[in-house]
Design goal:
CATH superfamily: Decaprenyl diphosphate synthase-like
Helix content: 40-55%
Strand order of the largest sheet: 3-4-2-1-5-6
Largest sheet: 6 strands, parallel
Mean pLDDT: 96
Bound molecules: 3-methylbut-3-enyl trihydrogen diphosphate, magnesium ion
Low-confidence stretches: none
CATH class: Alpha Beta
Structural class: alpha/beta
Number of helices: 7
Shape: globular
Length: 242
């Protein structure tokens, strides 16, 4: 069934929305709970937001779940996040087809447990047959890591005589990124009051509109997303033109 596309005035929703799911730890600490409690609620919020994005006709939703720098956290916190991802992917495997959601995992998966890697490959496989909103979950993802990985893959092709350095274009380079085939984000949202991008989609966000909000991710609702989209509609995207 096609998505019901809701237009605000005569403006369609952004085609691709990316979100840094930040603020889980502070949300929990404010309530005297362990940081991990915030990650659990954050996971539920993600489920709700994905359903809402599909309903309003967003084609691509990319969320930052775990960065290449997040391994610096305590073993307990890291293992809780990995456990939540495992549960998320397992549930996704059973529900993606019914919900009409494609799921991709972006990042360097080699550092993840074999079980998590297998689940990520399985969701990929299932998603191949699904046509609908595409959700990209960034796990062990870093924008710099992604660019280095792409440069190294292209250099390897050149060394093998399968590519020529002078043939490299922005478009070709994109095909080596984890996000190959995915259009650039139109709107990047960072909750939690931080005004930085923390290594998220560095290449892809060249002309994205940014929206910062103090709302912590576990408090994020469809209404906050609506506010971000309304702000996006007020922007004048020039892409270097006039
Ligand atoms: C985002 O929330 C989740 C991850 C980075 C994995 P945080 O855990 O960073 O929450 P704060 O920023 O400490 O509040
Ligand atoms: C960015 O949040 C990563 C994710 C939300 C997954 P961080 O909490 O890791 O970012 P910093 O440390 O505040 O820059
Ligand atoms: Mg944080």
């Amino acid at each position: 069934m096609p998505n019901e596309v809701i237009h605000a005035g005569d403006q369609a929703v952004p085609r691709h929305i990316a979100i840094v799911m930040d603020g889980n730890g502070r949300w929990a600490q404010k309530r005297g709970l362990p940081r991990t409690a915030g990650h659990k609620v954050g996971c539920e919020v993600l489920r709700t937001l994905i359903k809402y994005c599909k309903k309003i006709g967003v084609e691509y939703v990319t969320v930052y779940a775990f960065s290449t720098e997040n391994w610096k956290r305590s073993a307990d916190e890291v293992s809780t996040i990995m456990g939540l991802l495992k549960r998320y992917f397992k549930e996704a495997i059973d529900s993606l087809e019914d919900e009409g959601i494609r799921l991709r995992v972006l990042g360097d998966l080699r550092r993840l447990s074999p079980e998590l890697q297998a689940l990520a490959h399985k969701t990929d496989e299932i998603s191949d047959h699904i046509c609908g909103t595409q959700v990209n979950i960034c796990v062990n993802y870093g924008g710099r890591d992604e660019i280095v990985h792409a440069a190294s893959a292209f250099a390897a092709k050149c060394a093998a005589g399968e590519a020529k350095p002078e043939d490299l274009t922005e478009q070709l380079f994109h095909s080596y990124l984890y996000s190959a085939g995915i259009p650039d984000p139109d709107l990047v949202i960072r909750p939690s009051g931080e005004q930085r991008i923390s290594n998220f989609l560095l290449w892809q966000s060249a002309y994205a509109e940014y929206y910062f909000t103090d709302t912590l991710w576990p408090d994020f609702t469809p209404a906050v997303l609506d506010e971000a989209i309304a702000a996006y509609h007020g922007r004048n995207r020039r892409f270097g033109g006039v």
